[in-house]
Structures are given as structure tokens and as C-alpha cells.
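User: two proteins, same treatment. go.

Assistant:
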Amino acid sequence: MGSRDPRVDAYIDKSADFARPILTHLRDLVHATVPEVTEDLKWGMPSFMYKGILCGLAAFKEHAAFSFWKHGLIFGTDRPEDAMGSFGRITKLSDLPPDDVLAGHLREAKRLNDEGVKAPRREKPPEERKEPAVPDDLLAALETNSAAMEHFHAFSPSKRKDYVEWITEAKSDATREKRLDTAVEWIAEGKGRNWKYERK
């Protein structure tokens, strides 16, 4: 049989008036549907454990949230955008699906944990690589050497950025000029800024 954690009682007691009946109802439904669950606090919020995290509750100033740990496997990719959790901002019990529907989701979450299915990792969208702004003096220096210009344009954005930052971070004009000369020499040979440390 599962167990209840007094810290969850304290969390619910400290929650806003509107949230207490919502949290209490969800807690009771979880225990009724999956009697083996135990309770814990994860990241300061009540969590229900069954062979790993099953689901969790949270209360905020103006809304509550109920989250399934394996939301993507239960609901697909759809997720409310207006709040954390699997059902968006919950301000009253009628914001939740009917109990039998919620119980079905809980049984599915239990099945996934029974079978050891891992929660899918959230894919981060690939970051758009911004092309570094090439300073005029570096561009002018590259134009004096066709091989350097050709290699520079063939470099990856990160390699170009390394050179741009090295030039623009020079503390004095003399240092900058010296770096420009060195940069053109290295770039003409197809070398990256950190070529000395690159694996051969």
C-alpha cells in the first residue's frame, strides 16, 4: 500500500483558499486510482511516486497545476501554453477533466512506469547561428590576400567568430594591428584562431 506524507498536508494547508479543494481532490483521486503511490516533495512541490515520478501538484497565488511526469507519452505533444502542468491554469475543480478521464490518465502513467518507459527528452530547437559582424579593418586586411579571404569565407561561423572576437578584444591599436597581421597569415594557411590546440 502507498503512503501519505505530512509535508504534503502542510503544503495544502498553506495554499490559497481556492487551491485547497483542488489539491485535496487530486490527491485523493491519485491514491484511489493508484493505491501503491507514495508521496514526496520534489522541487518544493507535492509529487506522487510509483516506480519513479508519476505526477505532481503545485499551487500558486492565482492558479493550481497538475502535471504528469510523462505528459508527452500520455497526451502527445500538446501542452497548455498558459501555465505549467498538463491541464493549464486550474482555478476551480470544473477546470479539470472528469474523474474517470483523469483516472484513465493515471492508469496509463502507472503502466508506463511499470514497463520502465522513459520520459522523452524535450528537444531544444536548434539555435540560429548568427553571422559575426566582420570589422572593417579585418575585412580590408583579408582583401589584401585572396587565399585568406577564400579561407575566411569557407570557415564555419564559429571559426569566423573566434577571429572577429580576437581582433575586437585587442586593448590597443598596436595590439590590434599585430593581431590583424597574424590573423591574415593564419587564415591564408586555412588555420583557425585556435589551430595550435586543435587535434590533428
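Protein 2:
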Amino acid sequence: MDVSTTTRAAGRPPLRTFRELPSRPWFLVPPLRIVSDPGAAVLTMYTFQTREAYETLRRDGVLVGDSSKGADDWAGEQVFREAYAWMRRQMARRLPGPPHRGLLWLWPTATRELLRDIAKYARGEVLLTVRVARERALLSEFSDWHAVLNRYLHVPVNPGESEDEWELRWTALDDDFGARAKPYDAAPITEWPDELRVEIESSWEAIFDPATWRPKLNLQATISELRTADVVRAVRIR
């Protein structure tokens, strides 16, 4: 995920230093009560941030995603640069406000099990519980986001369609699209023929449509910045 840069903010409430934060073993980090209502006007969400990112937020009052630094800390980010750029364009289209310079990732429909599983690999980091106005966040289905990451056609499940029926339909559509797109596999999507690029990118937009979200699957949220006023809980993971 994106590492963060800074923008100065005034009138921010203070946050504890990293060393002053309450510390919990990874399996006890998630709060006892998880609030998960993606339709609420103000969303309660969860995000894992590095010590560096947390101290930036504490010091400057705001944390802004910066994809250009992510590749230094997570080898896969270089591969996913196109997907991140596409998500930023979607945020610019779908959210109010100025251009969105970066991405910060949060869990708006988390379970304690999900947070615990992530915390296991985030020791030394901070779990933040935040409350953010719905209009600042772009929600999408986490599982279907992998179509964007891996550059394949997204085919939502139709109402009443069984898993087997959907898989047969998806396989046929994906095989057809894959055959047509194969000559351009090594090229950036921006260099694909317009009809292929529009076809695949249009299919991805369904990840934002609540009508395509399947029960019991996790949603993710992207915002451009996190403010100290958003934070309601911060726990250091050990």
C-alpha cells in the first residue's frame, strides 16, 4: 500500500507519540466491537500504518498517500502502478474536492478475524480506527479489485446465478477477451487499442456498484488523506 507524505494542517487535535501508544499483541489488537455499515453518512474504518506514517500524521496533522514511494517498500507496487493510477482517476471522477494525489487504504466492513489476520503480519505498525465522512471515501469490493490488479476482465455475478453458472460464463468471456488482448499483454493498457482498453476498464467499474457486491465479502475504501481529527483509536501492534 501507499507510503505517505505530508501536508500541514491547522487546529488538529494531538495524538500520542508512537512510544506512548497502548501496545497489544497482534491477536488482541482489533477492538471488541466492530462497526461495519457501508451505507452510513460517517464511516467507521480501520487502517494499518507504519510507524513512520503514524508519526507523520501526528506531527503534521494529515497523511497523504504517495504511490511514488510505495515501490521502495513493497516490491509488488511497481507491477500494480497502472491499477493504482486507474483508482486515482476513479476517485477524481466519483469524489468531490481537489485532485486526489495519492491513495490511503482502509477497511470499512472489517471483521475482527480479518483485522487479526492482517495484524499478524503488521507487528511494529499501528492499527488506527477512524471515522470519515462517506463522501471522502470511495468504496469497492476487495476481491473484485484483483481484476484491476491483474488486468483481467471483471464479470459480476448476476442475481440468482449459481457459482458454477457464473464461472462458466466468466471463463467464456475471459477466454474471448484474453485471445483478443494477447498481442498487447506486455504493453501498458494506455497503449492498447481503444476498444480493448475501454472494454476492460469499463468492466472494472462494477467494483464500485453495490448491486454487484456479494454477501460476506470484504469491502475496501480509498481516501486521499487522513487527518488527526479522523482518528478515534490508535494501537501499536507487537
